[in-house]
Write a structure and sequence with these properties.
Elements: H1 6-16, H2 22-29, H3 33-41, H4 48-58, H5 62-67, E1 85-90, E2 98-102, E3 108-120, E4 135-140, H6 141-147, E5 154-159, E6 173-177, E7 188-193, E8 196-204, E9 210-213, E10 222-224, E11 232-242
Parallel strand pairs: 3-5
Antiparallel strand pairs: 1-4, 2-3, 3-4, 5-6, 6-11, 7-8, 7-11, 8-9, 9-10
Helix pairs in contact: 2-3
Length: 245
C-alpha cells in the first residue's frame, strides 16, 4: 500500500489498529461515520485537530498522518524525554509551525519547526518566511520556551564551513529564532551582509561598530563600521545547534 497521501495513511493506521471498516473506526472514535469515511476516502481533507484525534485512537504520530515520514515510521516515538529533537517529518505543513500532542512518555506538546534549504556562511540571502521547508523537526514546546525561543519565528538552517569551529561545525543543524534582530554582545547570530549568509558571534563596540567574530582562530574578526551597520541584516539568533555522531 502506498502511503503518499493523508487518507492512505489514515486507512493504513485504522487497519493496523484492528478496525475492519471505516464505520467501525468512526463508532469507536465517536465521530460521524460520513465524516470519517470522507477523510479516509480522500473526498474531504482532515485538519490538524482531526489528525490529533485520529492519532490518539490509532496510536500513531499525528504529524505522520498529515505529512508522512520516511521508512514507514508510523508509530508515535520519542528519542527521550531529555532529547531536544524528537522527530523529523517530511513535507510541507499548512502553516509555519505545527503543534501536536502525544501521550508517549507522558502528555507533551511538540512544535514542528521548518528546516529551510539555506546554508549559513554561504548563499544568496536568507528568506525566513518565503521558502518551502525541506522537512520539519519536532521540538518539545516546553524545551523551546525554556530556551527563550519563539516557536512561530523559529527556523532550522544548516551550517557550512569551519569558521565557527570548535563551537559549530560544518553540517551542524542550527535552530534560529528569526524574531530576534537586536544584537546581544557575544551571542551567535545568522546575518546577511551583501550576498553572504554568515553565522558569527557579534561584539558591539563603543564607537558604534560591530565585530563579526569567528570562533576558529584561523579566521580574523571582521569589522563592520558604524557607517556600514545598516547594511548588516541580523536574520536571527542561533539558540541551539545539533550534529550527527
Amino acid at each position: 500500500m502506498k502511503l503518499d497521501t493523508p487518507h492512505a495513511r489514515l486507512r493504513f493506521a485504522r487497519a493496523k489498529a484492528g478496525d475492519k471498516t471505516a464505520s467501525d473506526a468512526a463508532r469507536r472514535i465517536n465521530t460521524k461515520i460520513v465524516t470519517y469515511t470522507a477523510h479516509e476516502n480522500g473526498t474531504r481533507e482532515f485538519d490538524r485537530l482531526a489528525a490529533i484525534k485520529y492519532a490518539q485512537h490509532f496510536n500513531v504520530d499525528p504529524a505522520w498522518l498529515m505529512f508522512g515520514t520516511p521508512d514507514d515510521a508510523y508509530k508515535a516515538t520519542s528519542i527521550g524525554a531529555e532529547s531536544e529533537v524528537t522527530a523529523i517529518v517530511q513535507g510541507k505543513a499548512d502553516g509555519d509551525v505545527f503543534y501536536f500532542q502525544t501521550e508517549v512518555g507522558g502528555s507533551q506538546e511538540f512544535a514542528l519547526i521548518p528546516r529551510l534549504d539555506v546554508q549559513a556562511s554561504a548563499g544568496n540571502g536568507l528568506v525566513p518566511y518565503g521558502e518551502d521547508p525541506l522537512e520539519y523537526l519536532a521540538f518539545q514546546s516546553h524545551w523551546l520556551r525554556a530556551k527563550g525561543v519563539n516557536p512561530s519565528a523559529a527556523r532550522i538552517l544548516s551550517a557550512r564551513g569551519d569558521s565557527m569551529e570548535e563551537t559549530i561545525r560544518d553540517g551542524d543543524v542550527l535552530l534560529v529564532d528569526t524574531s530576534i534582530n537586536r544584537v546581544k554582545d557575544n551571542a551567535i547570530y545568522v546575518v546577511i551582509y551583501g550576498d553572504m549568509v554568515l553565522v558569527k558571534r557579534i561584539h558591539g563596540r563603543m564607537n558604534g561598530s560591530l565585530q563579526l567574530i569567528s570562533d576558529n582562530p584561523k579566521y580574523p574578526a571582521e569589522e563592520v563600521t558604524s557607517g556600514e551597520v545598516d547594511l548588516l541584516n541580523v536574520a536571527g539568533r542561533v539558540m541551539w545547534f545539533g550534529r550527527s555522531i
